[in-house]
């Protein structure tokens, strides 16, 4: 009987700890809100960068315009000339463009 009680107590303690960690993590996350028509910069990844630019090459590309909100935090982009950017982009990889 004692083993079952200890197991249950440890599960409750673990659930409490996980809730505490989740609350802390969520308090530090900055939510990025973009709307259709906003101008954004998108992050350039190592695979997309021009190798001759080297270390001092640009880290962001754009400006691009948001044309569709697929889900919360996921967007479809288009260049300013109207050409669609392939794939959908997560808000983590976007940065607001200020003129």
Blueprint of the fold:
Elements: H1 2-28, E1 39-43, E2 60-71, E3 74-79, E4 84-90, E5 94-96
Antiparallel strand pairs: 1-2, 1-5, 2-3, 3-4
Structure description:
The protein is of the alpha+beta class and 99 residues long. It contains one helix and five strands. The protein has one helix at residues 2-28, and strands spanning 39-43, 60-71, 74-79, 84-90, 94-96. A five-stranded antiparallel beta sheet has the order 4-3-2-1-5, with no helix packed on it. The chain starts with a helix and ends with a strand. The mean pLDDT is 92.
From the structure above, extract its key features.
5-stranded antiparallel sheet, 99 residues, alpha+beta, 27% helix
Quick synopsis:
This protein has 99 residues and is α+β, with helices and mostly antiparallel strands. 27% of the residues lie in helices and 33% in strands.
**N/C terminus separation:** 68 Å
The average pLDDT score comes to 92
Shape: elongated
The largest sheet is: 5 strands, antiparallel
Total strands: 5
Rg value: 21 Å
Beta-strand level of the residues, as a percent range? 25-35%
Strand order in the largest sheet? 4-3-2-1-5
Query: Helical stretch count?
Result: 1
Query: What structural class is derived from the secondary structure elements?
Result: alpha+beta
Q: What's the SSE pattern?
A: HEEEEE
DSSP helix fraction: 25-40%
Low-confidence stretches: none
